[in-house]
Amino acid sequence: MGRNISKVQDAPGTTRDYITGSFILGKQKFTVYDTAGIKKIASTHGIDKIAYDKTIDMLKYQRPVVLFMIDVMEGLSHRDKTLIEEMNNIGLPIVICLNKSDLLSEKEINNLTKKEALVLNFAKYIPIVPISAKTRK
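The structure corresponding to this sequence follows.
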């Protein structure tokens, strides 16, 4: 975006609503939606439930390419897998991004990528890409 549009913190629950920004790359305009992290359904109520519902409605209406961000230090949770299944059932194109890959060696990243691919056996075609928002790699 060329500027910060989202409040970023290590604490979960920082983003409560999705935030929209646009940029142009070449001659193509792109719109980015930074969504709230989604908790387990059993613990989702109040403002978290509203954020979840708004995110799902946006996904169904906008039908974006989903860059599903996973913290490499936490890995793919059961809830992440469920959300990926939900998005896959909606028919959204998905790329799984293993963020903070700068914290791991190349061997560790390769092992993690293989492990996560096994967990996502229902959608083997979804690419898993190590990235680092911090280093822009």
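The longest helix spans residues 47-62.
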